[in-house]
Specification:
CATH architecture: 3-Layer(aba) Sandwich
CATH superfamily: HAD superfamily/HAD-like
Order of helices and strands: EEEHEHHEHEHEEHE
Bound molecules: magnesium ion
CATH class: Alpha Beta
Largest sheet: 7 strands, parallel
Helix content: 25-40%
Number of helices: 6
Distance between the termini: 9 Å
CATH topology: Rossmann fold
Strand order of the largest sheet: 8-7-6-1-4-5-9
């Protein structure tokens, strides 16, 4: 077997944040993000789900709308503090945040697929071999628009979907098991690896574009 390292097309699981990774506060059938870091609580099974996906060498990319920052009712520092906590607990490779308020068109605010397309372009990710997991219509529309396979975490919010997901699950661990199953069915040469953990961590927000181009993780044959 060749000793050379070749670059395969990478696959990602794009993860919405609130209601997928951490608990969202539900009022009148609608979810709201935590206000402060003390309220940022991971949902059961999230660590196990992320470790499982990393075993199969998926990149884990959080793609989150945080419009309260753009509206001036939340600080980016509070959001960053939550993400500091998040990356201490789970092997996330990159966090994309859209702070846009939603009052003007934005290429990055979900349901637009801009955050996913940017990561895919930076890291040469195969979007058709990638997945998007979310708990709201914006996530599903975004994932579908990017060409990903979508998984809807159904918390029973009082809010209809606008396009259909490929699969429904009740939590991220269930979603992750389904994703691995689908991925294996495609007969790609991806096998479970004992080595886990993430490479470098990159965090961008649409309000503060990256100052450098990250190097995509490479996979050894
Ligand atoms: Mg959500």
């Amino acid at each position: 077997m060749s000793e050379s390292t070749s670059r395969r097309r990478l696959r990602a699981v794009f993860l919405d944040r609130d209601g997928v990774l951490n608990r969202a506060e539900v009022r009148s059938g609608k979810p709201y993000p935590p206000r402060q870091v003390a309220d940022f609580v991971l949902l059961p099974g999230v660590e196990a789900a992320c470790l499982l996906l990393k075993k199969y060498e998926f990149l884990l990319v959080v793609a989150t709308n945080q419009p309260d920052v753009g509206r001036g009712t939340q600080s980016s520092a509070a959001i960053e503090a939550m993400h500091d906590l998040l990356v201490q607990r789970v092997p996330i490779d990159r966090i994309e945040i859209c702070y846009d308020a939603g009052d003007v068109p934005s290429l990055y605010r979900k349901p637009e697929p801009g955050m996913l397309l940017r990561v895919a372009a930076d890291w040469e990710i195969d979007l058709h071999a990638s997945f998007m997991v979310g708990d709201r219509w914006r996530d599903i529309d975004c994932g579908n628009a990017a060409g990903c396979t979508t998984v809807f975490i159904d918390h029973g919010y009082d809010e209809p979907l606008r396009s259909l997901p490929a699969h429904r699950a009740s939590n991220l661990l269930e979603a992750a098991r389904w994703i691995v199953e689908q991925d294996q069915k495609t007969n790609r040469p991806w096998k479970e690896k004992e080595k886990t953990g993430c490479s470098a961590l990159y965090r961008y927000s649409s309000s503060y574009p990256p100052r450098f181009m990250p190097t995509a993780p490479t996979v050894r044959e």
